[in-house]
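Researcher: Let's try something more involved. This one mixes different molecule types, so please make sure each is placed in the same coordinate frame as the others.
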Amino acid sequence: MSITYTQADLRRTHPAYRGRWTPVVLTTIAILFLGVFLVLPLAAVFVEAFRKGLGVYLQSFSDPDARSAMRLTLLVALVVIPLNLVFGVAASWAITKFDFRGKGLFLTLIDLPFAISPVISGVIFVMLFGLNGWFGPWLLEHHIQIIFAVPGIVLATLFVTFPFIARELIPLMQSQGTEQEQAALVLGASGWQMFWRVTLPNIKWGLLYGVILCNARAIGEFGAVSVVSGHIRGQTNTVPLHIEILYNEYNFVGAFAMAALLTLLALITLAVKTLVEWKTKKDQAKAVVGGIR
Amino acid sequence: MKTRNKPTHVLPGFGLTLGFSALYLCLIVLIPLSALFVSALRMDANQFWETVTSPRVVASYRLTFGASFAAAIINAVFGLLVAWVLVRYRFAGRKLIDAMVDLPFALPTAVAGIALTTIYAPNGWMGRLLAPMGVKAAFTPLGIVIALTFIGLPFVVRTVQPVLEDLGTEIEEAAASLGATPFQTFRRILFPELLPSLLTGFALAFARALGEYGSVIFIAGNMPMKTEITPLVIITKLEQYDYAGATAIALVMLVLSFVLLLTINLLQRWTQRSRQCQ
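Model: All components are placed in one shared frame. Result:
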């Protein structure tokens, strides 16, 4: 293993300070740990998916139940993302550009879904809309089904992905302050012009990452959706729930084929995160240079 | 902060954005959550107590707590090590490893669950290595600890990493030049500085592990009294139409999550204070 050092590292590797082998040993242990816990599961997904060859792998996508699961998952993501996007931008605008009483409480409440077990996130909607729930009898009378149907899946997913976009935007907009928006207004821009021309370009990378994270969670959510879905094949099974059914039926290639698709999505999410971090750093560096000039 | 935000009411949209986001928060989060509290309040106190202290439920608390605690400890130790290596050493593939640390956040829990089960099953890659040593991982509490370690892995790394980046190497060099051994430097200089963020990461990983469901149920085996976690008990009760029982246990877990959330908030404030002191 070749390890190079920065200037500071070179000074610290002085024998009086630290053994020459310490960095190598520590790095090796860290890489071994991450290899066992991160790389092995990743490799296992793809090895199992292609165990019986590409043909069997591709065939598992033509199964009608698999297709309906993919359609449902896509539908849920398409409903959930825009709603949480509007909320995320509105909440971050109110929180970062204005001062008001109870801001701390508001911030804590936004984080609440992060602290709650996915299973409980599903249970609360059963308590509201299930047969024995608050609105159960009323819904039954009007022939509206929420639990064990698509609306319940959407609601549970909305709940668990609720904080993602706001959480990405709030620190970003906090650091940007309000000067640019004020300048736009002074120069005669309308509220919407200011938002589209000044605010949105400033937050676009953070927004993109928030959307990607929200999307990853919406597509991959298991616990909450499992409680409200009812597991009806071809109707209320999302992709993660379909994976569970296939796995429990010992259809491992089918289960891992679907899993490989979701894993690919997770890897894309990580790539976008890295890209966004790089872009933000570049923008900040540019802003610093601009400030000096 | 206050002075900078003072003249901000010049900007438009305060009423609209705050009103909309508060309404949305109530509809999606607060009203559904309060439904659980109200349902639990309507329960008979004796019945509530009997449900949440029945032997099968207590066994599930013990397992969930024990496994979450063990996983959070493993993550604290190795998370600190990974953060240290990523911040202080430069080696080929460091950036890739840095990006990979977030995998457990991005990978759906069910995918993690079936992948880990396949690896640690007796004929899996790791299972085959462990079997000759007489260690069974899949379908035992050890398997649960492994799944929870995976799920909580990014928390400690991501809370310790920025603090370590800010820390600089001057104090350590001073300690070394005054004759401290590496261990002394770590224990007396580094560890106290890193402790607030390490505890925050530990608490975050612990809180996440307590509620985790998707990655655990595949590898756990789900035997009542032995390998059944509390979230699974809630689901089992729901499937048996025991709504009152499910509500009671869910409320216990919910209160616990709130206590942890409060602790984490306090820890984060401590972290920020000690970072400002630097």
